[in-house]
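so im writing up the methods section and need the Phosphorylase record in one place, dumping it here so i stop losing it
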Amino acid sequence: MGDVSEENLVTTFDKLVSEGVIVYGPSTSVNIEDEGYPMEFRICPALLTKPHTVGAANPAFNKSRKWGPGSDMYCPDERLILTQLNGTHDLALNLFCVDRPQLLILTLDSYRRQYESLDQDDFAVMLETLRRFPSMYVIFNCGEKGGCSRLHKHLQGLLGPPYAFNYLINAGEDKKKVPFQYFSRHLLPGFKEVSTSVLLEVYTELLSRCRKVLGLGVAESCPHNVIMWDDWIIVIPRRNGITQGASANAGGMLGSVWVTDQSAVEEWTRIGCANVLRELGVPS
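--- predicted struct ---
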């Protein structure tokens, strides 16, 4: 990854924000606890310009180059690309951000799709990113029901920790404390030393459990979320990407929800945050 460090990540990020390349603005936080589950809503009006659903257009970027043939992601400035990872992925700064900074990791094969499961190449770059940037966690939103808004296969790096991470991990065997079903594994000897092959084996096992609760066959695409943070991998089966206007990706399932205005928070609380998570995932 060359000289890409957390320090020069922020420097590059700030420069591109100042030039209007990266969409980023101030946010306010609203913290809520529902049925014991902690939620943090980050209200960021700048996200109004972000396409939130697959196929949604953005007039501000429609003339920008796409991230390769077959891609539905925009690259309006080559400086967004930080480096290439393992000859399989681009490491880039995300175009629409709430965190400072926020990473995007895209397959160089721009015909790869977000409804595909993760493979060994994906895990190799996930581990490399986590090792280089220990303040970040990595997420994957598999399919529209998993909360993705673009179909070009990609991962994201966000500033940790996920808001409800400790609550979810500390629930232990009492899984009913969490509104939705999830499968997790504490990786030993941790991200610094675990091999991609072992990580892929663990993921494959957890994904098979997702398929089982969703009633899906081995050959069917399985909507799910993956979160990697603090030597843990968490895999969440998903039934819906949105319910009654409330939506969440992998970060949102772990309590970190980004919205554009206060009315979205009010809608979540009207439905009940725990109820939203049950509908998006599989009730515990």
